[in-house]
Amino acid sequence: MQSNEITKENINKLVVTFYTKVLKDEKISPFFIEKLGADMKSEIWQKHITLLTNFWFTISFGRGEYNGSPFAPHMQISGLDRESFERWLKLFFEALDKIYVEDIALKFKERASIIASNFMRNLSI
Ligand code: HEM
């Protein structure tokens, strides 16, 4: 059953579902494995999952525990191209469709697409 409300618990489920897909993806898994390793159960991955859960919670509710600089780490990743961002969005959309009813999924998709466009513009790709 897809959720028709946004909670911290289901955002966490979204983030875990998304990264499970990412780590199986030939094109974009290497970027994540290089920085965070291949084991989602590791401490570094658990921290990343909590960080991203807080990030999406803060975006959704306009308040929350994320107060970082979302773009900054992406400047340190070499080889990022438009195709990688398209794949990132495709996997994120698939995860959203699994977790949320259509109108909630759509709102996240709009936010993610805008952020991805901003990142690509900042990276000049
Ligand atoms: C192909 C596209 C992308 C790749 C390969 C990628 C990869 C990564 C990696 C490896 C990190 C961890 C960096 C580190 O800890 O050193 C990271 C952090 C992060 N990413 Fe991405 N990312 C992509 C796109 C996006 C998009 C589109 C968003 C948002 C919609 C996003 C949001 C974030 C956030 C919020 C962080 C944490 C920033 C912080 O440290 O505060 N990423 N990303």
From TrEMBL:
It comes from the Bacteria. Signal peptide: none annotated. CDD domains: TrHb3_P (cd08916). Keywords: Heme, Iron, Metal-binding, Transport. Gene3D superfamilies: Globins. The keyword Phosphoprotein does not apply. GO terms for molecular function: heme binding; metal ion binding; oxygen binding. InterPro entries: Globin-like_sf (IPR009050), Globin/Proto (IPR012292), Hemoglobin_trunc (IPR001486). This is Group III truncated hemoglobin.
